[in-house]
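TL;DR need structure tokens for one chain.
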Amino acid sequence: MARYTGPKSRIARRFGEPIFGPDKALDRRKYAPGQHGVNRRKKSSEYGTQLAEKQKAKYTYGVLERQFRLLFAEASRKKGITGEILIQLLECRLDNIVYRLGIAPTRAAARQLVSHRHITVDGKVVNIPSFQVKPGMVVAVREKSKSLEVIAASLEGFNHAKYNWLEWNEADKAGKFLNIPPREEIPENIKEQLIVELYSKQ
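>> reply
TL;DR here they are.
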């Protein structure tokens, strides 16, 4: 499955945010990458600002252009605010739910766990990271994968109370997706309206 495999610290420094998770390089160098990163003061155009916001959303959720465009088209067809629906669709991806439940430390690690068949949905193994989880579904660690060190390390000390739309069962290593979260409860720093404005020009 295609995914971004380039230098993540450079991308995080470009946006000035740890969009891939904790990044020591970003802590050390809080400026854009490249020879002129420290002194870069170039003002971005309206189009450049909108494009950067779309790129940030794609990198944050680990989605490539074609997938992102399809999700936007789906969000456009639904009733409601298109930008908010787009973010909610990204939040409902299986790899994101695994990450939010604390089963994996990053979305990239969550994607790998899903692809390697360590995760079940309603008791059945699902190995498609983009699978859309619906309210009421239970996402769990596969029985024979519960002893994996990466999962145990990620879950240790994780605060499962910080997301109101998820309910964690420690004994079963399973989380129930209670409802689609409202935009104000999704912590990502993404200005989705800029993405809507960008696509409206195309």
